[in-house]
Amino acid sequence: MLMVLGYNIGPLLAQGMLGLINGAFYALLSLGLAVIFGLLNIINFAHGALFMLGAVVSWMLLNWIGIGYWPSLIIAPLIVGAFGVLLEKVFISKLYKLDHLYGLLLTFGVALIVEGLARNQFGSSGMAYAVPDSLRGATKLGFMIMPTYRAWVVVASFVVCISTWLILEKTPIGATLRAATENAALVQSFGVNVPRLVTLTYGAGVALAAFAGVMAAPVYSVNPNMGSNVIIVVFAVVVIGGMGSILGSILTGFGLGLLEGFTKYIYPEGSGVVVFVLMIIVLLLRPAGLFGKVS
How many structural domains is the chain composed of? Predict the structure, then answer.
């Protein structure tokens, strides 16, 4: 037992680690939302459905074609990302000059269609996705036994999130993209195909959601409702971190996962609402979010 000042804090740390696993998914999903909103000004309400679609595609690759977890981790995000590119090219690209509400309504409709089609095809009971053999087992940490796969989820999510932030903030590609969102005509004059850049950015944000879906498949049952169950919390994460703040979404996602885990131990009845209580407090004190830019 892990004792501090005579108190056993092992169960608290164990709940925190379990919360960190949820936080890994919050961070990945809010990162994709922040990329799409921060760079394209589109509130992508279809993000949860695309997260679910990543899990469903990985399940289909495994059970219909025989492609395992590791190839699916690359192939499924590419397939769903290509769907996102098509969605942006055909529909969303027409809304950039309109109010944010139009994009929200369109993507909400897309979410309903995608979830409805998945429900009609696979039902609502959920489908099992086995943990890959290479990630089976567990490690004893002293205060808990950590399944290897869940540890992989936390590490992989952190690496992907930080890599995405570095690409957007520290590379010429990221600088070009940020410049295109500020003054598309000027960047176009330098020979950059801005519409294509925007389309690929949306596809990349969607692929991040699908990547999270593939990693979530062995943790949760693959079902059409898995995206709608998490997307409201993810939007709260984005608001708390600051709409459009890439680093804010990453840090807030992991942080709120920990907070949620600790709350489940200290006051279980409040674990489902603690994120929204914090969102209200942040909006009252700092409407732009913890890491958002105050205009």
Answer: 1
Total residue count of the chain as it appears in this document: 295
Q: Are 115 and 224 in contact (CB under 8 A)?
A: yes
Residue 129 in domain: no
Cα(1)–Cα(283) distance, integer angstroms: 40
| Residue 10 burial class via C-beta count within 10 angstroms: exposed 0-12, middle 13-18, buried 19 and up | middle
User: Using CA atoms, how far apart are residues 258 and 118, in angstroms rounded to an integer?
Assistant: 31
pTM: 0.92
Read off the DSSP letter of residue 217. Answer: T
Count other Cβ atoms within 10 Å, centred on residue 146. Answer: 17
54 domain-assigned? yes
pLDDT of residue 294: 63
Show the tokens assigned to 265: 């131990």
Confidence tier at 19 by pLDDT (50, 70, 90): confident
Instruction: Spell out the alpha helix ranges (H) of the chain.
Output: 10-40, 47-60, 69-90, 100-122, 148-170, 172-182, 184-189, 194-216, 226-241, 246-266, 274-285
Please name the residue that has the structure tokens 């407090």: 281
C-alpha 123: how far from its chain's center? 24
Q: Which domain holds residue 40?
A: 13-123+137-285
Model confidence over 21-61: pLDDT tens digits?
999 999 999 998 888 887 777 889 999 999 999 999 999 99
8 Å CB contact between 250 and 27: yes
